[in-house]
Amino acid sequence: MRNSSLLRASMPLFGLLLFILSTTTDARNLRSKIRPSFNPVRRETPADIFTTSPLTSPSTSHFAPTVRAPKDNIWAPLSHEEATSVVEYLHRHFNLTHAEDAGPWDNAVSVVDLVPPNKTEALSYLDGDGPIPLRWAKASISFGATETPYLQDFAVGPLPLTKNATHWSLDYLTTSGTNRMKNSKADASTVLEFLQNATISIGDITQDLLGYAVKAEDAYPELVTWTQNPPLFEMKAGSHGTEERRTIHWASIFKPFSTSRYPFDVATISPQGIFLKVDVTGRDPSKWTVDGWVYNDKYYNSTESFRQAWKHPNFQKVAHRNTVGNWASTDPAGKPFKYDERVRPLTVYPEGKRYAVDFERKYVEWGAFSFYLGFTRDAGLQLFDIRYNGERIIYHIGLQEAVAQYAGEDPFMSNLAYLDSFFGLGSNTMELVDGYDCPHGSTYLDSSVHEDGVSRTYPRSICVFEQDGHLPLQRHTTGRYVEVTKNIQLVVRAVSTVSNYDYTWTYIFSMDGSIEVKVSASGYIFAAFYAHNEEYGYRIREGLSGSMHDHVLNFKVDIDVHGTKNTFAKHAAVAVNQSYPWSIQPRSTMKLDKTWILNEDEGKLEWPGNGQTQYLVLNKDQTNPYGEHPGYRIMPGQGGGGHHLSSPRSETLQNSVGFAREHLYVTKAKDGEVWSSHPWNLLDPARPVVDFGEYLDGESLEQEDLVLWVNLGMTHIPHTGDLPTTVQTTSQSSFLLLPHNYLPRDPSRRTRQQVRISYGAWLNGSTLVERFGQHEVRGAAFPLREAVGDLEGYGGKVVRLLEES
Q1: Residue of 93, 125, 312, 616 with fewest CB within 10 Å of its CB?
Q2: What CATH class has 188-328?
Q3: pLDDT in tens, 101-111
């Protein structure tokens, strides 16, 4: 679970959390090794430290043909050697502590990533004889050795570093004018102790109401307490008569149910219905206060008032408790489906792969498509320089931010919201499960992140494979013949597990020139204790409510149609009463109404109702042979397509989600407007580093370099079918990009994966099958074991210290 105290990775949360809380000494020792720049407790499986090179090779079986990328991958993540040189440089120029030795009161490097090259320089290199863009690192430093800890990004370079290397603050990539952000989570591990001590102080109350009490000496306490995200800020009267901005959190008590025989990650479905409000302003825990408690929808303004009310004979207790048990296990339960034990359908490549990969440069070719892969700590998998028939159609497409915003009767759920780039959608990417996440035989690539003093390589965390879409791409039947075309697609996929949710990111390329971008979600819901919250979700167990929430996933789509100068158009089918010279009466019909989106004020768009309007990126300076402007269309796909926040003016997320209030935005591309969000926005949503709303300043969009910012997602109102975990059949959303008057005809006619069967009297009752030159597999025996794979080597990640030479 993502929360202000815990940064999720992969190991069961409470095993690590309970260790932290077991003794003050242990907690202090652990804090000395924690990076204060992000949440201090990191849920991850311990990994050995390797001194060998990170994995860069493909899967050991089912190799794809290799190809040499035409240019270097200028978006490739930093290598271990590059990241190490940056850390060493920063230690020479700042007063820093090595990350593995740093505590909350130290300065240390937290993240080292790539500063994306400016597009103008990138295109000069990609399309002509321009020099390769200089490579710069983005280094995030946590400055903890101060009463007001803060975070700041620096550009360091150019790489490789020489005696002339330099650094400067990356302020130009912000809207606030500075990327220095106060780190309201620098002392998060100390806040954990403070919360647990508050829970200990009401042990007599929790024993009565919940059946459990926490004692200071407990190595594995029965109850744990953590805060919501993001921090809240309230203005209160200060000691000198002036108002002060105070850092406030609401916290909730949870009952973990985890043993060595029951390892399931059920923390977020174990709320107990007791909430406390804490003021943790400043860095001195002795000045922190517990400002109130909530139980059974009643607020008590102090611990003493809560205790006095509890002692009163008329105190009303909730009639039920929330107990997590075997029902929350994801292991098989119940009677198996008929024939379920039989071998499932499998994917095979009878003649090998039909796509080519440059593993060193992370470059892929399939059919008429080619593209490069990039990867960042904040947003994970990104695609660049997507070309069709050798011509660029998309410069960049990739996730920007993942928002989750909850609603509820209690103060914890009502204030709960996440911006997952803070936790790292890239650093929470793990090895894919062969044969389940991706078909066995897929091509796997590694990804890497440099964070908290180590390089983490995630082997086999990106997969590439072909799939049969299982619905013909094209077909037609007559009395003389039937013709059908296979819908073969190329898929690129990765998975980010951020807290309780697993997000599957899928890019699907089709032979008709279209691209689908899809997100699917699974995992344990973040549920509420059931009490007085019927208007915020369904009751799904005795003491559990499926708390309603929004997911908004923002993507950047930089489309280039025959160059960078394009215009956004709306072509709508509109109802009209039209007179015709051949008709006595006017007829009710429809016409095509063509309009242009000429500035950014007009570029705030919702998907039109009834699918009557087409949104298009067109090149007005060019026409096809028939006088039409070529372009690409964007349209909603599965799950209803677009989504925005149901409550777009959230008091919780405030100015940090300007991109999440409409389905789609169109802006003019600028080198300083690279991301729609920033990971530090979660630290102070009212004063974000990047406020997307400031991008929308009315600039002209006519024949400019356009960027689309597209939202996917869903409003999730969990029901009993979301237990134990949400399934991905309904929890998914996508959008499509399709060629529009861009090609002379359907390009899928190039495929040989089609058949025409002629039949009927004109053939004297015989049948003629035309396979157009596709190879046939006849009489070949295929070892099924080759299509299933071996999961025994699954490992997760490889970790190397950045200070290693």
Answers
A1: 312
A2: alpha beta
A3: 999 999 999 99
Query: Would you state the structure tokens that stand for residue 468, as one six-digit string?
Result: 């049969």
| CA–CA distance, 153 with 174 (Å, rounded to integer) | 10
Residue 673 makes CB contacts below 8 A (sequence gap 6+) with: 667, 695, 707
Residue 420 backbone class (left: φ over 0; alpha: ψ -120 to 50; beta: rest):
alpha
Query: By the 8 A CB rule, do 450 and 458 touch?
Result: no
Helices 188-201, 13-22: inter-axial angle, 10-degree rounding: 80
377-423+499-743 has CATH 2.70.98.20 classification: yes
188 is written with which tokens?
A: 């998060």
Alpha helices in 171-288 (DSSP H): 188-201, 203-209
Distance between CA atoms of 185 and 249, rounded to whole angstroms?
11
pLDDT of residue 718: 92
DSSP class of residue 54 equals P
Q: How large is the angle between the packed helices 188-201 and 24-31, nearest 10 degrees?
A: 160
- Provide CATH 2.70.98.20 ranges for the chain: 377-423+499-743
Whole-model pTM above 0.85?
yes
Question: What dihedral angle (degrees, nearest 10) is formed by the CA atoms of 508, 510, 515, 521?
Answer: -20
Please list the residue range(s) of the chain that carry CATH number 3.10.450.40: 188-328
CA pair distance 270, 257, nearest whole angstrom: 8
- The DSSP-derived string for 663-726 is SEEEEE--TT---S--GGGGG-TTS-S--GGGG-S--B-TTB-EEEEEEEEEEE---GGGSSSB
**So which residues are the catalytic ones?**
420, 501
CA separation for the pair 113, 376 (Å, rounded): 7
